[in-house]
Design a protein that fits this description.
Layout lengths: L8 H9 L2 H22 L5 H18 L8 E5 L2 H7 L6 H14 L4 E4 L12 H9 L6 H14 L1 H9 L4 E9 L8 E2 L19 E7 L3 H6 L2 E4 L13 E3 L1 E4 L2 E4 L1 H9 L5 E5 L12 E6 L2 E4 L5 E3 L11 E3 H6 L4 H4 L3 E5 L8 E4 L2 E5 H14 L8 H23 L2 H24 L7 H33 L5 H8 L10 E13 L1 H7 L2 H21 L3 E6 L2 E6 L8 H26 L5 E17 L4 E6 L1 H16 L3 E4 H6 L3 E10 L7 E9 L5 H18 L3 H14 L4 H15 L10 E2 L4
Helix pairs in contact: 2-14, 2-16, 3-15, 5-8, 6-7, 10-13, 14-15, 14-16, 15-16, 16-17, 19-20, 23-24, 24-25
């Protein structure tokens, strides 16, 4: 493809970038994106991605949990010490009755919840055996029957325990069984009344549906004002407790979990109601469900009436009191007094250890404590159903943005962009998590990683072939970053000659002949290599193309092979930096015993022909044209005027914000039309007042000189020379004025200086 050499060609070139290369990149991104979208939609379940999401949930839980102690809820623990002191579990019900009485009477707790179920009669007293004898061989023994009747109240431990619960704020526990569970049809004990009877349940929420249950003995359940289930049907596939259901259904009625029942009682038994996204007139189904209303509190729920467990910290985030200390009356009043108490066990042999995001062996009773604490604090997490739609939008937006970045940017910048995306997504997600929003994370992070890996692999194994071809063509001329830009669409670039507006730079070592005579050839070679290497690095840094090295000189240009609308500015920056780089070389040259080098730099802009030119024996990528020749002449004039950098008229006009000192109007060798040349001083806005004043004085002196007012011009240049003796330009004009006095110019003199030598 031939270079486009007109301004209207640039948009067409830009459009060509978006054609084959970007289409292939888009297809690669689509292959990465599609499985993730299908997973989020539920069309293609991917277990590894679900496990990654669960792991990210655990990490966010660990990072954001409060890690504080909540002494409003106390766990009375049937621990190993209690079992050693009181015997193996289960204890007799009269012992439990004593425990209940101690808690309410001595320690004055506010509420008691049981993380256990009393489904079978207490057989420790032998009352059942005595009753059998009374109906059997001792049925006619009146004395035996009389003693049995008198002893019955003392031996009826279930009745004693039930009596200890009467008229006290107590919540019992029980277990539901669902289809597929062992003994799913078994119904043992008595359930409490549902919190929402079947007749009042007008929702179509897909609650977990219980078929059987193991509940408490009827005489015990009758004495307790409330009860809640404590098993968890929502354990994740990895066995970790992250969610718990707040309600389960049985025969149309809705029953609360232990945590919900305790929280309801702690809040003085407010009514339970549902929150729906569409309000009371909406569909009232699982997709529309937002949460529960428990008096003034709101509990966010998922589609099956489940909530995330709001873990407060690692195990031990609530006070533990040994059950045997309560029975002995030796436990301190704090923290039991006025506390919500949960009776459970941490003894390993009783199998109430659970795996959680904050610990692999976590006491089950403390999970209920975390639920109650989170409900009372309002410290709960929500994951509304519309988050799935937001996740899909995020995935598509990331795919589009990263495809453009990885397609058009260098590998390093693409890697940095992907790293920033990963960090920003994670930090934003953790920030939202800490504020109660569970935003899915894994799919987005996997998308970023997948896009980076696939695009990088494609770029390395496929596009690098085109890059290597371009490097073979242009690597000796242009910096690597330009080769990478060219590789984004190799068909835009070729070696054919075209005409284009560009800027050329010539840099030459002053006094090189003398230097070459003073140094041995090896030393001269090392000196020039050092000089040209530093100059080349500066040119490359500013997007320049090396044309050739010419002994002690270097020639470069801007605007090809990659079009550069800022070619004049980039060349000017390079010229300024080359001067500074030359100064930084001087100490090293002195250390080597080499002579100090001076450099002259000439810049010129204009129409130039660029491309492969030469013969069938040797060919080079170079620039030709009058503007190029003028650039070389301008460089040679830097010695005449004692300046480091000189620029032509077109370069000056392309950079109106650069302050310049007009040097002269010259007629260079081989050209009839005169041109103005300038010394660039730096950005106009950064020039100090003294420099600006000097420029104005010089401009006035030039006007006087060109109108043949020799005396006034001489006076101005003399004063400038006295103020700035280091500037040779003022001495040049003083010499010219002296010459004009001795040999007055003709009537057709126009103030133009004619260059006699190249």
């Amino acid at each position: 493809m031939q270079f486009d050499n007109n301004p209207q060609g640039e948009p067409r070139a830009q459009e060509s970038i978006l054609q084959p290369r970007l289409i292939i990149r888009a297809l690669i991104s689509l292959l990465v994106l599609l499985p993730l979208v299908m997973h989020v939609r539920g069309d293609l379940h991917q277990g590894w991605l679900e496990r990654l999401e669960l792991a990210s949930y655990d990490a966010r839980t660990w990072l954001t949990m409060p890690r504080t102690m909540d002494d409003r809820i106390v766990i009375v623990d049937v621990d190993e010490r209690s079992l050693l002191r009181r015997g193996q579990w289960p204890w007799s019900r009269d012992t439990l009755a004593e425990l209940v009485n101690r808690l309410f009477e001595q320690y004055q707790i506010s509420l008691l919840g049981f993380d256990m179920v009393f489904a079978e009669p207490d057989a420790s007293t032998g009352l059942g055996t005595l009753r059998a004898w009374a109906k059997g061989p001792l049925a006619g023994n009146s004395q035996f029957l009389e003693i049995l009747e008198q002893s019955r109240p003392l031996l009826d431990h279930d009745g004693i325990f039930a009596g200890s619960l009467a008229e006290r704020p107590v919540v019992l526990g029980y277990i539901f069984r669902r289809e597929g569970d062992p003994g799913a049809q078994i119904k043992l004990g008595a359930l409490p009344p549902p919190v929402i009877p079947a007749a009042e349940n007008d929702t179509t929420i897909p609650f977990y549906e219980a078929q059987g249950y193991t509940a408490n003995l009827p005489q015990i359940q009758r004495m307790a004002p409330a009860a809640g289930f404590f098993e968890n049907p929502t354990v994740d596939p990895d066995g970790v407790y992250r969610r718990v259901p707040m309600l389960q259904a049985h025969r149309g009625g809705l029953y609360p979990s232990l945590g919900l029942a305790v929280s309801q009682m702690a809040l003085a038994n407010p009514a339970i109601d549902f929150d729906f996204f569409s309000g009371s007139e909406g569909p009232r189904d699982g997709l529309d469900l937002e949460g529960l209303r428990l008096g003034p509190l709101r509990i966010p729920l998922g589609a099956r009436a489940t909530m995330f467990v709001p873990y407060r910290g690692a195990q031990g985030s609530f006070p533990y009191v040994s059950a045997t200390d309560v029975l002995d009356g030796t436990a301190p009043n704090y923290p039991l007094q006025n506390a919500i108490v949960l009776l459970g066990t941490s003894a390993p042999g009783l199998n109430d250890l659970r795996s959680t995001p904050v610990g692999e062996r976590f006491n089950g009773v403390e999970i209920h404590a975390n639920v109650i604490s989170g409900i009372l604090d309002g410290r709960l997490k929500a994951q509304p159903h519309y988050f799935r739609g937001l996740e899909l939008i995020l995935l598509v937006a990331l795919a589009i943005g990263l495809t453009l970045l990885l397609s058009l940017a260098p590998v390093g910048l693409g890697m940095f962009g992907c790293l920033v995306a990963v960090v920003v997504i994670f930090v934003a997600n953790v920030w939202a998590f800490a504020r109660g929003w569970v935003v899915p994370l894994a799919a987005s992070e996997v998308l970023v990683a997948g896009l980076f890996v696939t695009h990088t692999a494609y770029g390395y194994f496929v596009e690098s072939r085109g890059r290597r071809a371009l490097s073979a063509l242009f690597g000796q001329y242009v910096p690597p970053e330009l080769v990478r830009e060219m590789a984004s669409n190799p068909r835009r670039f070729g070696m054919q000659a075209v005409s284009r507006d560009m800027t050329v730079l010539f840099a030459d070592v002053r006094g090189f002949t003398g230097i070459a005579e003073d140094l041995e050839p090896p030393e001269l070679s090392l000196l020039m290599n050092e000089f040209l290497t530093v100059m080349t690095r500066v040119i490359h840094r500013h997007r320049g193309t090396i044309d050739k090295y010419m002994g002690d000189a270097v020639m470069a240009f801007w605007g090809a092979p990659v079009p550069d609308p800022e070619h004049a500015r980039n060349a000017m920056r390079a010229a300024f930096e080359m001067h500074g780089a030359m100064q930084s070389l001087l100490p090293r040259f002195r250390k080597q015993g080499w002579p100090e080098l001076g450099v002259g730099i000439g810049l010129n802009s204009g129409q130039m022909r660029v491309g492969n030119m030469g013969s069938e024996f040797r060919i080079a990528y170079t620039v030709l044209g009058d503007a190029v020749n003028l650039g070389a002449r301008i460089e040679s004039l830097t010695r005449e005027y004692g300046v480091t950098v000189a620029v032509g008229q077109q370069t000056r006009e392309a950079l109106p914000d650069i302050g310049c000192l007009e040097l002269d109007i010259v007629r260079v060798r081989g050209k009839e039309r005169p041109v103005a040349i300038y010394e660039p001083l730096g950005p106009q806005a950064e020039l100090d007042n003294e420099t600006l004043a000097m420029c104005k004085r010089h401009e006035r002196a030039l006007q006087l000189y060109r109108t043949r007012e020799w005396d006034d011009a001489e006076r101005e240049f003399y004063l400038l020379h006295q103020s700035y003796p280091e500037r040779r330009i003022f001495r040049v004009y003083l010499d010219r004025i002296a010459l004009c006095r001795n040999e007055p110019p003709g009537a057709d003199w126009d103030g133009v200086f004619t260059q006699r030598v190249k």
